[in-house]
Design brief:
Mean pLDDT: 87
Largest sheet: none
Order of helices and strands: HHHHHHHHHHHHHHH
Helix content: over 70%
Length: about 450
């Protein structure tokens, strides 16, 4: 087990180090998807399709609210990996302390003011009246517990930046098991309905954030932790925001696009919303490995840029892209073959199952394109260039995703048209990612000079 704890990616065969780091991420994402599916199954079978639709209608807004916190976590991970690769102990210590402070301040702000915006936003998105109250309740509970969720995200990201992908895997597994157990307790025992999913998520991630902090406190041989390092300093907080804000803004653009498209989804009724939730749960098995390879590439690029080895980044990117594409092809095949019986676990409604299967068949080739895009953008971002991925995201989302969604729905008049717009956006995203990487601005973007 010890060999998995900290991986130095600046030495050895790039593909081997990337695979060694990615495998725990992949396993963790499988756990995450299983507990996400378990949540949906529990809701669909014990509460009904309306509960599934309420969760689906809420997620774009909650994602938008969370993007800045996600951005800071990404910025922290990039800085940690580069300072770790450069063996800069003081810089590493201040980066970790400052980022924890920023998450604390931002999380407290979101807990207080976030619930005030849920009803106006959900109403603005034309959320069906029959699921509006459940959607509001779901979002508000997540917001009240957002601080624990934020700590879990940033602390696990810091651990990965330090080369430890195994500990976050263990804590994520604990989160998944605890979350499912709490949901069953809350639904079967307390009859909370939709609220049970949000409460289970908040409590489980809050508990796992404590485990992450405990692990970090045991890594004193790598960095120092104390109040002096948590005092905000512009050099570190500013750099984290410089790296994190473009990433958060990119995610915000994606979230806004999802919100702009959500009325189209809602216009096809609760049945299609439920089918869309099923598709999002299933495609997570393909998408999350893509994000795993992308995250591994970010850490790999960060450590090697910090160590002054950009040539290893070039070799590792090509090898990682091949591994990601092959993985996506295999998983797409599994989803297409077994998608129908899996969808039957969520609901007994035949039309919902049929719609979800048509949507998955349309999206299938896009998953491979998405996997390649994640690797190349991960390399660029890990090297310290957060601006290029930001502009690529703007072009992909504003020029392709949103206009094509409305155009295809107008021309086809069927809900599956929304999937064609996603397919187009993912394909363009791959082209832009490879183009940005080959331009090569990332080679001069390292924060360690």
């Amino acid at each position: 087990m010890k060999r998995f704890m900290n991986i130095d990616m600046t030495e050895g065969a790039p593909w081997r180090k990337l695979l060694l780091f990615t495998v725990p991420l992949l396993i963790g994402n499988v756990f995450q998807q299983f507990y996400g599916i378990a949540d949906a199954i529990i809701l669909g079978q014990f509460v009904g399709d309306g509960a599934l639709a309420a969760v689906g209608a809420s997620m774009p807004i909650f994602f938008l609210i969370m993007v800045l916190m996600m951005g800071i976590s990404v910025g922290a991970g990039i800085m940690v990996s580069q300072y770790f690769g450069a063996r800069r102990r003081d810089d590493l210590s201040y980066t970790i302390g400052n980022c924890i402070t920023m998450i604390t301040i931002l999380g407290a702000f979101m807990m207080i003011f976030g619930p005030l915006a849920t009803r106006p936003l959900l109403t603005l998105l034309n959320t069906p009246a029959e699921i509006l109250d459940d959607s509001i309740m779901y979002m508000n509970i997540l917001l009240w517990g957002v601080l624990g969720m934020g700590y879990f995200n940033i602390l696990s990201g810091i651990l990965r930046g330090l080369g430890d992908a195994f500990s976050p895997l263990v804590y994520l597994a604990i989160t998944c098991v605890l979350n499912v157990a709490l949901n069953l307790l809350f639904i079967a025992g307390f009859g909370w309905g939709v609220a049970s999913v949000a409460a289970g998520t908040v409590l489980a991630q809050g508990f796992s954030s404590i485990l992450c902090l405990r692990r970090l406190l045991k890594m004193r041989e790598t960095f120092d932790m104390g109040m002096r390092y948590m005092r905000p300093l512009r050099q570190y907080s500013g750099q984290a925001l410089k790296l994190g804000i473009p990433t958060g803004a990119s995610q915000a653009i994606i979230a806004v696009a999802a919100m702009v498209v959500q009325p189209l989804v809602n216009s096809f009724g609760a049945g299609f919303i439920a089918a869309n939730v099923i598709v999002m749960r299933l495609d997570g098995f393909v998408m999350m490995p893509n994000f795993s390879f992308g995250n591994a590439m970010t850490v790999f690029a960060g450590q090697n840029i910090g160590a002054g080895k950009p040539e290893r980044v070039s070799v590792g990117t090509k090898q990682c892209a091949i591994m990601a594409a092959v993985t996506a092809i295999i998983l797409v095949g599994i989803i297409l073959i077994f998608g129908r019986p899996i969808a039957g676990l969520f609901t007994n409604t035949g039309d919902v199952i049929d719609t979800s299967q048509r949507m998955l068949r349309i999206l299938a080739p896009g998953y491979v394109a998405f996997s390649i895009a994640m690797v190349y953008m991960g390399a660029v971002r890990g090297a310290g260039d957060a601006i290029s991925p930001f502009w690529a995201s703007i072009v992909n989302t504003i020029v392709i995703r949103v206009p094509s969604a409305y155009l295809f729905v107008h021309l086809m008049g069927r809900p599956e048209a929304l999937m064609y717009s996603l397919l187009a956006a993912w394909t363009v995203n791959m082209i832009l990612s490879i183009t940005v990487y080959r331009i090569g601005k990332w080679r001069k973007s390292g924060i360690v000079k």
